[in-house]
Input
Amino acid sequence: MKKILSITLLFFVTLSYSQRWSAYGFKVSPENEETVVKIIDDYFTANSIEGVTVSLYSIMFTAADLNFTHEVIFSGEAEAMAKLYSPNFQDTAWQLFSSKINNFIEENIFSANGWRAFEFGDVMPFQMVVTFKGDNENVNKWRNMERTLNEKYPRDYRSFASGGIIVGGPSNEAEHWTVIGWKTYEDYLNNWQNDQNFRKENPKFVKEMEKMNSEIDYSEVAPVKKFMRLLVKQW
Output
């Protein structure tokens, strides 16, 4: 596809992480939004992809230089994702879907693929996405800290996931990402207070986090892009 879902052969870098994803950010005019959502819904409802989850997001808040309105993400194990980009996948139904959707996509903003290191909690619809850069040694220390603390001290008021970007994305500078999710917008607004309450109720968590943080050098770690999205539907 020329605009949203260009089918090209992707050669994945061999990593120890089996969960992979591909993302496509695009811009739709307000008058075409309902049509685009229906076309996507009709296709993936009738044509599920074995082993692959398809997620459609509507962009709620973003910076002016990241002018996209929707995002589609394909995620799954490497073997299932590889089939998505094989010539055999491009059957008549897919070609018809591509032709329809291209008539209503105003602009393709970015595409990307990468991997997920971990995910804690259920998928929640209101999501804050942060892409960032940093040296691998300290980012890996940070990920190990987050994995350890989230396993030992689970939180039910938000979900949390993190991983890496192999190529593409909202910016060429970012190589890492995090996604924090909430069940409702009110939960998002109350996140800071919920974090404070969690710290008060779990003093051991605070001590462990402070100790682990003291061993991480954040001088080379910096955010690159941030946006908030709403999950429309998953197939």
Q: What stands out?
A: The longest strand covers residues 107-120.
